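explain this:
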Amino acid sequence: MATPMPAKHAFSFLRIAIALQTLTIFLQAVSSGLLMTSSYGETLHSVGARAMYGASMLYVLAAVLAWKPGGGPPRPILYASGFLVLASVQVAVGIAHLPSVHLPLGVLMFGLSLLALARR
């Protein structure tokens, strides 16, 4: 039987996951500018969207691992799940080419992710 991961390690993995999510959202803002000004911007923004979505899924996994085997509080799972929902909406409105929703939602996600990182 495997021994549970100490809470200290689980929380550091959670912090790394939040930092990665925050970084990928920030890089999406950069690639958004490139999307408007260069020929390769669309490809970069598309790849970045997949990375951001993957980082949001990693955040959910890290929150679950910090809670269940790590003995941490369950609240980060709610936050991580909320980010995954926001990321799903962000991808959908991006595909639908609705910049009036896509851009402000991206700013909101970056701010919330930065806040989550600061709280951790």
